Amino acid sequence: MTVSTVKTDHASAAVPPVARPSEPAHIIRDDAEAVAVAHALAAEFLKESSKRDRERIWPVAELDAFSQSGLWSINVPKAFGGPEVSYVTLAKVIEIISAADSSIGQIAQNHLGVIAAIRTVSDAEQQKLLFAEALKGTRFGNAFSEFGSKRAADFETRFTDAGDHVVVNGRKFYSSGALLAHLVPIVALDDEGRAWYAIADRGAPGLTVIDDWSSFGQRTTLSGTVIIDNVKVPKTHLVPGYKGYDRPTADGAIFQIIQVAVDTGIAQAAIDETVHFVRTRSRAWIDSGVDNAWDDPYTIQAVGDLTLRLHAAQALLEKAGLAIDRAVAEPTAETVAHAQIVTAEAKILSTEIAIAATNKLFELAGTRSTLAEHNLDRHWRNARTHTLHDPVRWKYSILGKYFLNGENPPLHAWS
């Protein structure tokens, strides 16, 4: 695998912030336009996706095109001037983009999740302020997870009250999108241990983003270490994220469904690569009795099986989107639990097909598909890396407890 060329030679150096967009972003009109725009962008993103992975080239122009297209504000409510597309459509958009370049698809995840959280927990004045930023084309990154804590939800980053602003201190990792974000939501605890999103300006004094992401997969998600040293955040940008989980809301399922869409996108890319390689480069096996690799009965069966399993994952992804739409409109214990459960089911199938399709690619395409010039291992590396975010073994536990004992899933961003 091409795992030895990750460019982190200057990882100790802070990455300077990027400028805000000079022109306002487009605003998507409806669901159909969102899908059409996603397809158009994906066609462009695909062209250099292998090179970006191989050389770890930041998708700067691609990310600008993505956020300026209007797809980063598609879940802003209509009441605030946004398109408010369905979560079925939002998931399809992420899947389409991720099939072209799954790193770019993942970068948008936390931005869209934070937009959803603002809708759930912020007052009208804060919503107006922050939704306006998203509609302009401002990108929210993230500084959520921490490297050394016992559990993902254990945070040491804290803030103190300083009048009209708060002062935040801590250290973060797994900060997808933070390098080229305009605003960085930081998960920080108050003196009662409650988690807030302290949304800092990317260029705020004391906020340092370091390009030290060295994973073998999802190599251009613009992640890395975020150091927060007495960073001032105005209270207008202090979002009470904890309120999204102290009662039933769809916030957790929304974060999760975007993860599912990234994985189905990776699976689609792997199946597309398999078909293309078998049709154009692979040789028929010596004992097959056929002249063309695409006539091999075992290959035919395998491609049919992979496609069926992908379609099953996509069907559950759509069902999860519908359940989330209902939970957003009518947030009750029952509607939220249903959205969580269907999304967990989709997460299981999407993980399984992403791993299976990216692995089967080499078996069906043959030895020459492993040559470095093709860089097809990026799909497996991306699938293996991204699917580690939320362990499938615990999704089975959630399902079993729900269907056997009537126990609703826990309320957090991983469920």
From TrEMBL:
Domain Acyl-CoA dehydrogenase/oxidase N-terminal, first and last residues per copy: 37-136
CDD domains with a match to the protein in the record: DszC
GO annotation, biological process: L-leucine catabolic process
UniProt keyword annotations, A-Z: Oxidoreductase
GO terms, molecular function: 3-methylbutanoyl-CoA dehydrogenase activity; flavin adenine dinucleotide binding
InterPro entries (alphabetical): Acyl-CoA_DH_C, Acyl-CoA_Oxase/DH_mid-dom_sf, AcylCo_DH-like_C, AcylCoA_DH/ox_N, AcylCoA_DH/ox_N_sf, AcylCoA_DH/oxidase_NM_dom_sf, S04_starv_induced_SfnB
Matching SUPFAM superfamilies: Acyl-CoA dehydrogenase C-terminal domain-like, Acyl-CoA dehydrogenase NM domain-like
Pfam family, one: Acyl-CoA_dh_2
Domain Acyl-CoA dehydrogenase C-terminal, residue spans: 258-390
Cited PANTHER family: ACYL-COA DEHYDROGENASE, ISOVALERYL-COA DEHYDROGENASE, MITOCHONDRIAL-RELATED
NCBIfam families in UniProt: sulfur_SfnB (TIGR04022)
Protein name from the UniProt record: SfnB family sulfur acquisition oxidoreductase
